[in-house]
Design a protein that fits this description.
alpha+beta, about 25% helix, 4-stranded mixed beta sheet, 4 helices, single chain
Protein backbone atom coordinates (compact mmCIF):
# COMPACT_ATOMS: atom_id res chain seq x y z
CA UNK A 1 0.00 0.00 0.00
CA UNK A 2 1.32 3.42 -0.95
CA UNK A 3 0.99 6.27 1.51
CA UNK A 4 0.50 9.67 -0.07
CA UNK A 5 1.86 12.52 2.00
CA UNK A 6 0.59 16.07 1.72
CA UNK A 7 2.92 18.94 2.60
CA UNK A 8 2.80 20.31 6.14
CA UNK A 9 2.19 23.72 4.64
CA UNK A 10 2.33 25.75 1.44
CA UNK A 11 3.89 29.20 1.17
CA UNK A 12 3.03 31.53 -1.68
CA UNK A 13 6.38 32.59 -3.12
CA UNK A 14 5.34 34.75 -6.07
CA UNK A 15 2.11 35.73 -7.81
CA UNK A 16 3.17 35.60 -11.48
CA UNK A 17 -0.13 36.44 -13.21
CA UNK A 18 -2.20 39.14 -11.55
CA UNK A 19 -5.50 40.92 -11.97
CA UNK A 20 -9.18 40.14 -11.91
CA UNK A 21 -10.47 37.24 -13.95
CA UNK A 22 -13.70 39.06 -14.70
CA UNK A 23 -14.29 42.79 -15.12
CA UNK A 24 -16.52 45.14 -13.20
CA UNK A 25 -18.55 45.73 -16.38
CA UNK A 26 -19.14 41.98 -16.84
CA UNK A 27 -20.57 41.85 -13.33
CA UNK A 28 -22.67 44.98 -13.90
CA UNK A 29 -24.16 43.48 -17.07
CA UNK A 30 -25.04 40.25 -15.24
CA UNK A 31 -26.53 42.21 -12.33
CA UNK A 32 -28.40 44.55 -14.72
CA UNK A 33 -26.64 47.60 -13.32
CA UNK A 34 -25.97 50.88 -15.08
CA UNK A 35 -22.51 50.65 -16.69
CA UNK A 36 -21.99 54.41 -16.36
CA UNK A 37 -22.68 54.50 -12.60
CA UNK A 38 -19.25 54.04 -10.98
CA UNK A 39 -20.34 54.48 -7.35
CA UNK A 40 -20.07 50.76 -6.56
CA UNK A 41 -17.06 49.89 -8.72
CA UNK A 42 -14.58 49.56 -5.85
CA UNK A 43 -17.03 47.38 -3.91
CA UNK A 44 -17.53 45.18 -6.99
CA UNK A 45 -13.72 44.93 -7.39
CA UNK A 46 -13.39 43.67 -3.81
CA UNK A 47 -16.26 41.21 -4.33
CA UNK A 48 -14.55 39.87 -7.46
CA UNK A 49 -11.36 39.20 -5.48
CA UNK A 50 -13.37 37.55 -2.69
CA UNK A 51 -15.22 35.37 -5.19
CA UNK A 52 -11.95 34.36 -6.87
CA UNK A 53 -10.48 33.35 -3.49
CA UNK A 54 -13.62 31.43 -2.49
CA UNK A 55 -13.66 29.56 -5.80
CA UNK A 56 -9.96 28.69 -5.48
CA UNK A 57 -10.69 27.22 -2.06
CA UNK A 58 -13.75 25.37 -3.35
CA UNK A 59 -12.04 23.78 -6.36
CA UNK A 60 -8.74 23.20 -4.56
CA UNK A 61 -6.83 25.03 -7.27
CA UNK A 62 -5.06 28.22 -8.18
CA UNK A 63 -6.63 30.34 -10.89
CA UNK A 64 -3.79 32.69 -11.85
CA UNK A 65 -0.21 31.50 -12.26
CA UNK A 66 1.54 31.43 -8.89
CA UNK A 67 4.76 29.93 -7.50
CA UNK A 68 4.42 27.96 -4.24
CA UNK A 69 6.80 26.18 -1.89
CA UNK A 70 5.62 23.04 -0.06
CA UNK A 71 7.32 21.71 3.09
CA UNK A 72 7.45 18.03 4.08
CA UNK A 73 8.80 16.33 7.21
CA UNK A 74 11.19 13.52 6.37
CA UNK A 75 11.45 11.88 2.99
CA UNK A 76 8.05 10.50 2.01
CA UNK A 77 7.94 7.78 -0.61
CA UNK A 78 5.15 9.60 -2.43
CA UNK A 79 4.59 13.34 -2.13
CA UNK A 80 1.08 14.41 -3.12
CA UNK A 81 0.93 17.84 -4.74
CA UNK A 82 -2.65 19.08 -4.55
CA UNK A 83 -2.18 22.19 -6.62
CA UNK A 84 -3.62 22.70 -10.10
CA UNK A 85 -4.07 23.49 -12.95
CA UNK A 86 -1.01 23.41 -15.22
CA UNK A 87 1.25 22.28 -12.40
CA UNK A 88 4.97 22.32 -13.04
CA UNK A 89 7.48 20.97 -10.52
CA UNK A 90 10.32 23.48 -10.52
CA UNK A 91 12.62 21.85 -7.98
CA UNK A 92 12.83 19.32 -5.16
CA UNK A 93 15.31 20.05 -2.37
CA UNK A 94 16.39 17.92 0.57
CA UNK A 95 18.12 19.80 3.39
CA UNK A 96 18.39 22.82 1.01
CA UNK A 97 20.27 20.78 -1.60
CA UNK A 98 18.59 20.46 -5.03
CA UNK A 99 17.80 16.86 -5.98
CA UNK A 100 18.71 15.69 -9.47
CA UNK A 101 15.46 15.13 -11.39
CA UNK A 102 16.61 11.60 -12.33
CA UNK A 103 16.21 10.60 -8.68
CA UNK A 104 12.45 11.14 -8.60
CA UNK A 105 9.50 10.40 -10.84
CA UNK A 106 6.61 12.78 -11.48
CA UNK A 107 3.16 11.29 -12.10
CA UNK A 108 0.52 13.76 -13.26
CA UNK A 109 -3.16 13.01 -12.84
CA UNK A 110 -6.22 15.09 -13.70
CA UNK A 111 -6.42 16.93 -10.38
CA UNK A 112 -3.15 16.13 -8.65
CA UNK A 113 0.51 15.28 -9.08
CA UNK A 114 2.55 12.66 -7.26
CA UNK A 115 6.33 12.77 -6.82
CA UNK A 116 7.90 9.38 -6.14
CA UNK A 117 11.18 9.54 -4.20
CA UNK A 118 11.91 5.81 -4.24
CA UNK A 119 15.64 6.26 -4.89
CA UNK A 120 16.31 8.50 -1.87
CA UNK A 121 16.32 7.90 1.88
CA UNK A 122 17.24 10.23 4.74
CA UNK A 123 16.22 10.53 8.40
CA UNK A 124 12.97 12.30 9.26
CA UNK A 125 13.36 15.95 10.16
CA UNK A 126 10.94 18.87 10.18
CA UNK A 127 10.79 20.63 6.79
CA UNK A 128 13.63 18.51 5.43
CA UNK A 129 12.03 18.28 1.97
CA UNK A 130 10.99 21.37 0.04
CA UNK A 131 9.17 21.34 -3.31
CA UNK A 132 8.92 24.44 -5.50
CA UNK A 133 6.03 24.40 -7.96
CA UNK A 134 4.21 26.73 -10.31
CA UNK A 135 0.54 26.34 -11.14
CA UNK A 136 -2.43 28.30 -12.43
CA UNK A 137 -3.47 29.84 -15.73
CA UNK A 138 -0.94 32.09 -17.50
CA UNK A 139 -3.46 34.95 -17.70
CA UNK A 140 -7.07 35.81 -16.92
CA UNK A 141 -7.92 35.33 -20.60
CA UNK A 142 -7.03 31.61 -20.34
CA UNK A 143 -9.28 30.88 -17.35
CA UNK A 144 -12.17 28.67 -18.56
CA UNK A 145 -15.48 30.42 -19.22
CA UNK A 146 -17.30 28.20 -16.66
CA UNK A 147 -15.03 29.53 -13.91
CA UNK A 148 -15.55 33.12 -15.07
CA UNK A 149 -19.32 32.61 -15.07
CA UNK A 150 -19.14 31.13 -11.55
CA UNK A 151 -17.21 34.18 -10.32
CA UNK A 152 -19.84 36.50 -11.80
CA UNK A 153 -22.66 34.47 -10.16
CA UNK A 154 -20.96 34.75 -6.78
CA UNK A 155 -20.41 38.49 -7.10
CA UNK A 156 -24.03 39.08 -8.11
CA UNK A 157 -25.09 37.07 -5.05
CA UNK A 158 -22.95 39.30 -2.83
CA UNK A 159 -24.37 42.45 -4.48
CA UNK A 160 -27.91 41.32 -3.71
CA UNK A 161 -26.98 40.82 -0.05
CA UNK A 162 -28.01 37.17 -0.22
CA UNK A 163 -25.12 35.78 1.83
CA UNK A 164 -26.97 35.01 5.04
CA UNK A 165 -25.80 31.42 4.76
CA UNK A 166 -22.14 32.62 4.85
CA UNK A 167 -21.57 30.85 1.56
CA UNK A 168 -21.01 33.07 -1.44
CA UNK A 169 -20.77 30.18 -3.89
CA UNK A 170 -24.19 29.62 -5.44
CA UNK A 171 -25.60 26.23 -6.42
CA UNK A 172 -25.35 27.27 -10.07
CA UNK A 173 -21.69 28.20 -9.59
CA UNK A 174 -21.02 24.83 -7.92
CA UNK A 175 -22.58 23.08 -10.91
CA UNK A 176 -20.28 25.03 -13.25
CA UNK A 177 -17.23 24.19 -11.13
CA UNK A 178 -17.78 20.40 -10.93
CA UNK A 179 -15.18 19.70 -13.62
CA UNK A 180 -12.55 21.71 -11.78
CA UNK A 181 -13.14 20.57 -8.20
CA UNK A 182 -10.59 18.28 -6.59
CA UNK A 183 -12.45 15.44 -4.91
CA UNK A 184 -9.51 13.04 -4.72
CA UNK A 185 -9.07 11.39 -1.36
CA UNK A 186 -5.63 11.53 0.25
CA UNK A 187 -5.85 7.83 1.04
CA UNK A 188 -6.39 6.88 -2.62
CA UNK A 189 -4.28 3.92 -3.71
CA UNK A 190 -3.01 3.46 -7.26
Amino acid sequence: MLVYVAPNRWEKVLQIATGNIVTVNQVKIAARMDLLDTAMDSLIESYILSAQAAIEAYIGGTLLKTRFRGFYDGIPYVMRINKKPNLMVEQVKIFDVPVDSTLYEIQKRKNLTNIFLSKISFPDEVDSVVVDITCGYESAALVPEQIKAAIIMCVVKMLTGDCGDNNIITKGAKDLLKLYRDETEWSEIT
